[in-house]
Amino acid sequence: MKNTDLPLLLSFLRDNKIPNIIKKPITFLGISKQPHYENVWSNIYAFFLDISGEHGFEDLFLSSLIEVISKKTGKQFTFDSNFRITTEFTTQDNGRIDLLLCNDYEAIIIENKVFHLLNNNLDDYWNSIKVSKKQGVILSLQAIDCNNIKNNKFENITHIELMNVVMDKIGKYISGVSDKYLIFLKDFYQNIINVTNSMEKELINFYFNHSEKSNQIAEIRESYIKHIICHVEDAPKHINEKFEKPQTLGKRFTYYRNITHTIMFSFNFFYCYMKHFQ
């Protein structure tokens, strides 16, 4: 560890309010380790966009999508409620349209983006759908500069923009809806919030403005942990007892155990505890 000015760090800690880290609610997708998988999001959208689906929300998602498209284009957008939903639709050049809402004469072509860059052949997507009325949509986590969208027939809508409209309109649809699907919908919404705002702006600004001192404090903590680990691992040598092989449970605590004694420590504080069970 580099030489550290401890009085300066102590002064920094006294004089600056460190933002609290607010833990985001965990979601089902988070539990399943799939919070940002694009194909999973596409399948969920497809489920809720089906106006006759068993979820019971009818045209909630479709009407919300239409509302946002109208706002983005500055024109009143309409779409027939009699349509088919296809995921991973194969294009002429063997591309994949994430979500296609289509009937015999109109279509909404949706490219779903979470973290991946927009490098898809949108012209191929557009030309592969042979209907007279088409609208392209790029769903993305963050807003995309229009200069980076190579086909001007596609409008960029963020996931949170769409879902905010859904949640604003939901009150008109929840009567008679199963609690199960209401929970699913709210959980999906929370998941999108979690992924969109992976770190609070206050924390980002704090670290950006105080990165050097924050890194120094982190180095001190790491050195402290290594120091404690070294002493705990050395402790059995000073006790006239035979201990089992050390066990490590993540980075929370380590313990040495035999029938009569236990040595344990945590990173919040260090202590040796020896208990006789006889």
UniProtKB/TrEMBL annotation:
This is PD-(D/E)XK nuclease superfamily protein. Pfam families: PDDEXK_4. It comes from the Bacteria. The lineage of its organism: Bacteria, Pseudomonadati, Bacteroidota, Bacteroidia, Bacteroidales. It comes from Dysgonomonas alginatilytica.
